[in-house]
């Protein structure tokens, strides 16, 4: 019996020894080595820290801990596959202290290595300095450069006869151009300030006084169809010229019947997109924005709207010309498809269709006389494409 108990005890000791060894291998408590060969490249509002990793084969990541310019302790990490990390969010001309740690797979932390460097002037000040404002139709265009390509928030303070409004613009593009529309043609005092994602912000700076150009609805009474360059939209009750008769089709009644109907049977037997409608404005204009309306009334709908149904126009290109031969692309546009898998359409999408789908050009167009509306898709019909109205906004009769 004693021999048997002795054997059991020896077996337990053996098992515990194996378990302890295994546990030590799977979860060692030895911290990794430290980073070495450190070099630092200061950047605008931060710095890039380059280093060599220790020889440990279980390194997980490197962690940098520092205090940002808001007085908050923050950290950045870089995986074992990197030999550099970026410290940013700084807005100071004094040195920043950074502690670098190495962390391994078992979450053991190395001793820290301390480095100090002085960042270059924050990129938010460079953005602020680069801001340029020019008057445009119904507003102003604001451009800036962002060499860091990091997110900035540009606060635009607009003072109009003692009344101040603030627009907040955001971008991380290296070159940005944004049009602020809906401003009166009055002299405006405009000031700006720039903030980064970490909360560093410049002082508010007055950029100058600007007067937006007067924007008006372009009168359509002089427009005529260039039939030999256009698709035939005269089918059933529809007429191509209804596209600019200033009558928008409505859901409630068929009395307006103001839309074009492009029927494949009247156009060679198929709808070959693009479907062009070419208009002679019989005057010179410039535009910055426009609206397009879909057909709304549905004969068999029992009062249900026809918006977003298969025959309605969906996407289109807009071209301008001064000779009706050479065309400049003003933009490519898409109304979009708000229908879900069951065909349901949210109320805001219906309201947008009723009020007209509004589109803006990237820039105010050059002066032109001829307009080409080139339909590139509808909502699925292979037989008919319809649309109700187009309205342009800009400078009329130049």
Explain this structure.
This protein has 398 residues and is mainly beta. It has 3 domains: 36-117, Immunoglobulin-like, CATH 2.60.40.10; 123-213, Immunoglobulins (Immunoglobulin-like); 217-395, Sandwich (Jelly Rolls). 11% of the residues lie in helices and 43% in strands. It has 3 helices and 24 strands. Strands 15, 16, 18, 19, 20, 21, 22 and 24 form an 8-stranded antiparallel sheet that branches. A hairpin with a 2-residue loop joins β10 (152-160) and β11. The longest helix has 25 residues, at 2-26. It is elongated, with a radius of gyration of 33 Å. The chain starts with a helix and ends with a strand. Mean pLDDT is 92; it is low at 1-25.
List keywords for this structure.
DUF5000, single chain, 3 helices, Immunoglobulin-like, Jelly Rolls, 398 residues, DUF4959, 11% helix, eight-stranded antiparallel sheet, four-stranded antiparallel sheet, mainly beta
